[in-house]
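Example (one chain per record):
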Amino acid sequence: MINHKKYMKYAIKLAKKGIFTTSSNPIVGCVIVNNKIIVGQGWHQKRGSEHAEIIALNMAKKLSYGATMYVTLEPCAHYGLTGPCYKKIISSGIYKIFISTKDPNPKVNGKSIKKLKKSGIKVNIGLLKKKSKFLNREFFKWIKTGNPWINLKIAMSLDGKIATQSGKSKWITSKKSRNEVHKLRAQNTAILTTSKTVLQDNPLLNVRVQDMNILDQKKFPKENFVQPIRIIIDSKNRIQKNHKIIQITNKILLIRLKSDNKKWPKHVKQIIIPPYKNKINLILLFKFLGTLNIKNILVESGSLFASSLLSLNIIDELIIYCAPIILGNNSKPIFLLNYIKKISQSKKIIFRKVFKIGNDLCMKINFKKSSK
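Predicted structure:
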């Protein structure tokens, strides 16, 4: 008997190699097996490059004839930056294909499956479906809703504080945790912060591969990597050209209620978002950012902005780095939610993953959906 799950698991493992470089595209892995031997394999390496299926078919060549293909996502069925994959799969002589999950993109969504079936290829759908859907949960949300997936990253003390009473927050967590944040940044299309954070910390908010651990540096795909867009909520036009974040020429979006008359560098663009109660309308903002092909956003901010996102139910995943220190009652808490008076009003969470980084803990948290 052929262990089909084994080959799909390997395709999922291959797909993960594209996690830093596919931008607005999904991550996809593909394996071709002929007579229980892997004759072709590939993963989507960057937006605009050949898809996983094509790379695997090019490797397998004539050995594709009569073979079985395992792919984590339905092959594309439309012309974009590349042509439709299903056509080459049909012409290759593939006998059977296992597709882990359908592509929710309306341009695809079952269309290539119909074409493959019509051509006589045996099609199996749903093998390790949950794993493959989770792999592209950010892409799926963006495609279905138009809104980016929002990751909120916070470093805190054991008693849930993110800064001392005077606002000092460097450094709550260890160097190992801070290095891990560069990997986290690299997995997002954009990094978002507020002018308050920029004025207080004067950060760069870029990915610094040299600050990752040595093993990650060796594996990091530098040749295909594009720095995330940096987004600054700046409703009072407080950001100036002399801030460190402006000095690095990766793309920056200044989110404002009104533009100024300054001549900004080419990599800086002012975006005007209509207000809600004299503040940036965050619902409109994220909907707009989705139209820019921004699939996922990492938010790095203080407690006020984090609390606004939490109150609006905008956060999809909360990533907390917890240090083994206690800062005390007068320090700044992680969230400010004054409206919660009883347990029934609390935000319900699911601990998706908890692990140690040096002496710190990293907690990856999702929010339970309301039953209403």
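Caption: Residues 257 and 273 are 6 Å apart (CA to CA).
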